[in-house]
Amino acid sequence: MTLQLRHVTKSFGEQTALRDVDLSVEYGEVHALVGQNGSGKSTLIKLLSGYHQPDPGAEAELDGRPFQLGSSHAARAAGLRFVHQDLALVLSLSILDNMMLGRPYPVGLGGRIRWRVAADRARGYLGQVGMEADVRSPVGTLSMSERTAVAIARALSDTGSGQLLVVLDEPTAALPAGDVDRLLEAIGRLRAEGHGVLLVSHHLGEVLGIADRITVLRDGRVAASVPGAGVDQRRLTELIVGHSVVVPDVGPRRPKAGGGFPRQPAGPGRPDQAMALRVRGLAGGRIGGLDFGVRAGEIVGVAGITGSGRESLAPLLTGGLPHQGEIEVAGSRLAPGRPRDVVAAGVAAVPGERARLGVFPNLGVRANMTISQLERHRRWGRIVRRLERREVGEWIDRLGIVARGPDAPMPTLSGGNQQKVLVARALRTRPGVLVLDDPTQGIDIGARAQIHEVIEQCAADGIAILLVSTDSDELARLSDRVLILAGGRLAQILERGPALTAKSIDASQLDAKPGPALAAAAVGSEGGDA
Amino acid sequence: MNTMTAPPVRPARAGRRPGRVRLPSVSRFSAVYLWAAFIVLFGVLQFHLFLTVSTVQVVFSQGAVTAVLALAFLVPLTTDTYDLSIGEMMSLTIVLINWLTLHTSLPLGVIAVMVIAGCALIGAVSGFVVVKLRVNSLIATLGMSEVLSAFQLYISQNHQVAGRFTSLFVAIGNGTVLGIPYLDLYMIVIAVVLWFVLEQTPLGRRMFAVGGNREAARLAGIPADRIVWGSLIASAVVASVAGVLYTAQVGAYTADIGQGYLFPALAAVFFGASQLSQRPNVWGTLIAFFALAFGVQGLTLQFGAGTFWASPLFQGVALIGAVGIASSRGAIGAGGDGRAIRRLLRSRAPAATDPGASSQDEADHAHG
């Protein structure tokens, strides 16, 4: 059996997410779909699942029979099954209940659930992905790979018979390294059963290990569709990034105003300057041993694919997650998991998940901005609103925040403007160290440029900045150095220079393998200070 | 617009036409309108009874204790923490004071201070359970409420406890100045102190921040655990003060005090949270409380002394109505649990922030 897509185009207003994409997935094969963020992978998946409708002209065939793209009903009927990254499992329910979620239980007399029949069926599907477990145990007690297996088994159980096409969206992103192999085994089993697998992944090593065919999307087009055996990781990285990794572009894509690199003195060429932030043997979350330092006035970028430990770094540094190892700010060590101490030590942060970790929805812009340092406008115990308003007004002007005045309720602001309020909250404490976790995610170009300007200004003012970002362009534009993380460790350091471009950062992330040796070298090169 | 507690002089907003008198918005001042409606309604129905100085005095002097209890509930609610033990905390205070005046010869002032300090300690225990043992505050304080009820039964042996009080103490609870009951003055003092702390100081700002997003507050360097803990101690102290005031006003302990006072207090806070700044706030609570109290008084006068059922019916309907209006305007992602309800209470309706749209909505609500 074959799923055949032809001439699939999808545009959102002015933006075209997919251009004339052809895709052919054989059943009994693992077909990998790779590409950078924004290359169109998720749009394609969402078209298949019926979440988006394609532009006119698209054709889809299953074994020669046409089926309608953009209809979730048709997708289901055609045997397409989706396992999304978050798995959509209820952790407190048992494996069995999770597999039966939203499906009819087999019932006997008087509507009694025939548990034994249900359990036998569930075991059958779990067996298809090579999992043996007590179906009564809660999903919350399972490891991440087992949970993924349950989610896949659940997808298989949806019709019960016939060949299916299982679409796995980044199934290994949340898995610890040891679990990945077991999941790949389960995927292999699906293939052996004759099911088709469409695997979306950033992890090229895994993709190369299991895929029979690899389709590379780049800028909404199919850049290549090659047999898995025919490429190696280097070649695949080149296909994804769209140029040769060995010979990088000449110069940064966007040279800074005034030319050259204005913060040159802060670079690693001046080891005599004290480290404002210094990290030794940092572990916790998905990070397992990290050493680096940031000097005053320096912007150090951090990149890494999902699951590399990048997403854990800022929470570890700001006390959101308890850490092991040493974090030193201006010479004094921070205790683990104590954000108060972190703030008191002069570290300000713009958290990654704005709504969950940053915004107070019940307060206005003014209160949101000043919350981490209220004493500045205190007279006789009370906050003098006149002074507070004046300061907040200045920040609103400086960052170009669009709000109906300093007292507008926070939820009335757009995402980008909320983000600017958080940036202002961090900056107004005049921190020694600034930790930014994806500071421009999901915000428009204008706001992004303004935030970039402010970041550069801060570095010029002598603030040590750690910029964790998924936006390689941003990293290339701002960073003095970019640390590439992989597998919870430092894999590579890219120094500022003509070779530091968005593309080289992308390529390094995809190509990176965790190397303890490199981590040790990084410590050595930064050991000469203090 | 959202900081009604201290309106500064501000230039006229765009969209506000000069020369046109705008009535305060219906939803944010619904308690005031309700209050006015009751006065008009029962004033017409019960012309000779309702619109008298004594009605006003009765409502304000009988309501003061419950209003203080409502303020006790308000304090931890700003940090998104429920304290359901305030009713029993108040009645424990009452039984203890009565009992101590009978069985010791300590001066009343010492007894009152001791009992309040004891209640603060109990609040600290609740705080420990909520903060350190990570028990949901609803459950923790509900459990604590039963424990306190057991204390009372043990001390009172399920009988009335009537202590011996000095005439000074009785005067403190029942005197008036210029026709205003002393109790209301105490209430106003407590309200002003709480308003100052909650709305004017960094501590209050942090309490609301903890209530709005605890993890974000923690990351911003706010000692969220300590603030929640402290707010439970504060609510215990204020509830205990309400108990002292009750003792001064009424005197003897009877077994059914605690729970009877809890609901009107809660209703006032929740109703009040839909008023003014549209989050739990001191003046909204008091306005809502007395609006409801006037309604109850009017019903009692209308239907005679046998209308013991009027008060709970009325409180219940008013609470649902008030929160209903607040949620239907601010509803986002309503779920099935208490958190969603609280979010509705806290969230400000986007419509209410837009002058044009909000007046339209208000008109709808006014007709509805």
Task: Kindly describe this structure.
The complex is a heterodimer of chains A (530) and B (368). With 530 residues, chain A is an alpha/beta fold. Chain A has three domains: 2-241, Rossmann fold (3-Layer(aba) Sandwich), CATH 3.40.50.300; 247-346 and 432-530, Rossmann fold; 364-430, no CATH class. In chain A, the strands form five sheets. A six-stranded mixed β-sheet of chain A has the order 6-7-8-3-9-10, with helices on both faces. In chain A, strands 17-20-21-14-22-23 form a six-stranded mixed β-sheet, with helices on both faces. In chain A, strands 11, 12, 13, 15 and 16 form a five-stranded antiparallel β-sheet that branches. Chain A starts with a strand and ends in a 5-residue tail after the last helix. The relative contact order of chain A is 0.11. Chain B is mostly helical and 368 residues long. Chain B has a single domain, classed as ABC transporter involved in vitamin B12 uptake, BtuC, CATH 1.10.3470. Chain B contains 17 helices and two strands. Chain B has a two-stranded antiparallel ribbon with strand order 1-2. In chain B, a hairpin with a 2-residue loop joins strand 1 and strand 2. Classes of the chains: A alpha/beta (530), B mainly alpha (368). The A-B interface holds A 318-320, 339-340, 342-344, 349, 351, 356-364, 367, 370-372, 374-375, 378, 381-383, 385-386, 404, 407-409, 411-412, 425 and B 1-3, 6, 8, 196, 200-202, 205-206, 208-209, 211-213, 215-223, 279, 343, 346-348, 350, 353.
